[in-house]
Amino acid sequence: MVLQMSSNQANPNTYMGSVVASNDVVIQVNDLHKCYQSYPKPIHRLWQSFMPKRRFYQEFWALKGIDLTVHKGETVGIVGKNGSGKSTLLQVIAGILQPTKGSFTTKGRISALLELGAGFNPEFTGMENARLNASIMGLTREEFHDKLPDIVEFCGLGDFLHRPVKTYSSGMYVRLAFAVAINMNPDILIVDEALAVGDVRFQRQCFRRIEQLKEQGVSILFVTHSTESVIKYCDRAIMLDDGELKLTGSPKEVVQAYLELMFGSEKDTDALVKVDVENYKVEFDPSIDNCPKQASYNSGEHRWGDSRAKICYYEIFQNGAASNGLMQRGDQLVIRMWSLFEQDVDNLIYGITVKTNDGNAIYGTNSRALEVETPAQRAGDLVVVEFRLKLNLLAGDYFISLGVAQDHDVKDNIAIDRRYDLIHVHIRETLDAFGIADLEGDLSITLED
Q1: Among 320, 324, 326, 346, which has the minimal tally of Cβ within 10 Å of its Cβ?
Q2: Domain coverage including residue 404
Q3: What is the pTM of this model?
Q4: Which of 261, 292, 313 is the last residue of a domain?
Q5: Does any domain span residue 32?
């Protein structure tokens, strides 16, 4: 689980002669390609060695022309579907794999948490593996013993440190691996979905330590399927798909593109029906987007989906009265959402999510989770859905996303019309509490006799 490399600051790790141009750059990847050769049968490998001019294998390009620059102290999140090349890229940067083509440079000491169990000898005890990894990293015996109390305290394995790691659970592997990696004074920390198998408390402990490492100027490459973690902890993000770097940008921008990639529709949308809207008994035109007319509308929303239905209007009510988005803690919020269908759609899901200003979801639900029956809709149907929430939130700005999707056996759901951060509401400040959620706390003081 923990693989580390050590290098002198003045002599960075290089492959194919790549040179770091700036002292601020700790990882430089240029036109990186990685190809695997897949042989139908083992005997074909032997034939290939005797007949090199013939090809007995099929090529699989895991990476195709990746360019990436990471600066000192920067945390970069990497997202993508399974098989997109994320783990291969990290293994190349960590020095475990060599690229087929291209160059990469790393500068400083690298600690890498990769697949479960990597870098550990299963016959060795946890303590012996920790000592071995420290030696590989170039730490002296005295330096290791100075670090040992921190490793023991962080991993919390107790007597299990003196047992073979082959007896460890996956969570215990992660605890030891992370404790060793972060206490080796790394300049670069690479984490490949390693924390996904840890328990919730340990994950929180790890993320607190990651924040400390960021403050110390450690550069971090972070692969995860947790989009909220990317938004919260990363300075920048990249998205890989089919071995190619598809997008680099702000975490929120990349996460939105990743969600579109994961939940986008493959259905034919050319057959959308032109709807006659003259007979609808509403005070707005359902054929156009009326949401920007509302005072609470957020022009910075992100909208996507296959458009078989479109959210054409919404209204918000505060304690029964129309609202402009300025609210009080504890208010009863009602949101009405109108959707116009341009194709016949069944297995519908209507959903809502409330997020903080920095993009962390604090509440979300949908018709599927609430087991609310949703009838199939035909082209031309105008449907209104009402969401009811109690705003047990403290002072601050919050953004509400609305969506229409279709249940799907493989993709979980297919986005029809998702409008992220569509509505902006502000909760007025109060002085009796701080944070995000109102837990209606109280206290009392009693003098014991």
Answers
A1: 320
A2: 264-427
A3: 0.70
A4: 261
A5: yes
